[in-house]
Amino acid sequence: MSKFKVFIEKSIADEIKEYISQYCDCKFWDYDKKISREELFQELKNVEGLLENGERIDEELLSHAPNLKIVSNSSVGYNNFDLKAMKSRGVMGTNTPYVLDDTVADLVFSLILSTARRVTELDSYVKQGKWNKNDEKNLYGIDVHHTTLGIIGMGRIGRAIAKRAKLGFDMDVLYHNRSRKYDLESELGTKYVSLDTLLIQSDYIVLMTPLTDETEHLIDYKEFDLMKDTAIFINASRGKTVNEEALINALKNKKIFGAGLDVYDVEPVNKDNPLLKMPNVVTLPHIGSATARTRFDMDMRAAKNLVQGITGKIPQDLVPELKSADN
Ligand code: DGY
């Protein structure tokens, strides 16, 4: 029996390759360099499945892939999907929820702590031989424990952050979300508030909302103006949920104390981006879920979604917008 043809655009573990190969005739992109759009179009000519990470799946790409049935993202975010184009061509799209929640929540906390306590700034200070006993007061940071954390976007990752904040750091947790999470409110005492109230009252503001048409530039000049001048802003969602110019303006003009960023408007971030020169900004290269174990679990989940879709099943992580009334 001839197998289904699939293209795997990212490097994955041998064990996962073997799993997919049981069901599919696979081609792997095993080069160190990222595949170009043109190269990808070539690879998609005859395939029925694609496993990838963050490729723009739009009308242009789909027009080069007439047999494509499923695109399996190895990420929880799926803002790379043009849902309308995929729907109109009947192409399924999946993501990898659940397996990365705690890993991303850990990273968010490392951004909170390192920004508040100036960890990366002071690490370079020591390594550059600048440590001077008389300098102590210039090294002060701000407390994390017993302060107020505001989480925008209370999904599974938001919950994992709230748990760490409440149980580990005795923080009061405010949240803003499309829907209320009553179970979380009774479990952890988190408080649902309007976006403005959250921005006004929080010491730490964590943006975790997915990027959609509604959330693009959710945090803009007006929102930074509402924040405390001692606030720390953390973004581990997608860069475009924030107007980056407004963020730079807020930091330059000391409207907020600092920022911890894992995501940017353009990635990899431009070398000239002023955020990279600011000592009160901790910058990471979009590594929210990047531990070896979690990335393996994400790739395996993506592989299972791919195989399910290609073999005629409804994949377990078919994204809600692409579900039809009967699945
Ligand atoms: C995700 O899974 O969406 C993370 O941001 C990694 O891309």
UniProtKB/TrEMBL annotation:
Gene3D superfamilies, alphabetized: NAD(P)-binding Rossmann-like Domain (3.40.50.720)
Domain called D-isomer specific 2-hydroxyacid dehydrogenase NAD-binding: residue spans: 109-288
Q: Which CDD domains match?
A: GDH
Keyword line: Oxidoreductase
- Please list the GO terms describing molecular function: gluconate 2-dehydrogenase activity
The catalytic activity of this protein is classed by the Enzyme Commission as 1.1.1.215
Q: One Pfam annotation, family name?
A: 2-Hacid_dh_C
Q: Which InterPro entries match?
A: D-isomer_2-hydroxyacid_DH, D-isomer_2_OHA_DH_cat_dom, D-isomer_DH_CS1, D-isomer_DH_NAD-bd, NAD(P)-bd_dom_sf
- D-isomer specific 2-hydroxyacid dehydrogenase catalytic domain location is 8-319
PROSITE patterns listed in its UniProt record: D_2_HYDROXYACID_DH_1
Q: Which domain of life is it from?
A: Bacteria
> Can you tell me which family this protein belongs to?
Belongs to the D-isomer specific 2-hydroxyacid dehydrogenase family.
Enumerate the PANTHER family for this protein: 2-HYDROXYACID DEHYDROGENASE-RELATED, GLYOXYLATE_HYDROXYPYRUVATE REDUCTASE B
Protein name per UniProt: Gluconate 2-dehydrogenase
Organism of derivation: Clostridium algifaecis
